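W.,

You were right to be curious about this one. When I first looked at the sequence I had no strong expectations either way, so I just let the prediction run and decided to look at it fresh. Below is the sequence, 72 residues in total, followed by the output.
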Amino acid sequence: MFITNVQVVADQIAMSFPTDFGHTYRIEWKPVTGSTNTWNTLTNFGLILSPGSRTATDSLSNTQRFYRLRRD
């Protein structure tokens, strides 16, 4: 699974991705700069009971970030 659409909406970044039944999903982030390799949870979607598309948002006022999508 991967993020399929990224948009800037007002003062936020919106990241969309497809989901499958029976899995959990979360968007994680870490700073672009810095020596840490720790990923932080931005949004946790929990167990998906209805497949489709989900969207996570983050403020553009934050420092530069890397994002990743995790499926369990």
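Here's what jumped out at me. Residues 5-71 form one domain. And, maybe more interesting for your project: The beta strands are 5-9, 12-19, 24-31, 40-47, 52-59, 65-71.

Coffee later to discuss?

I.
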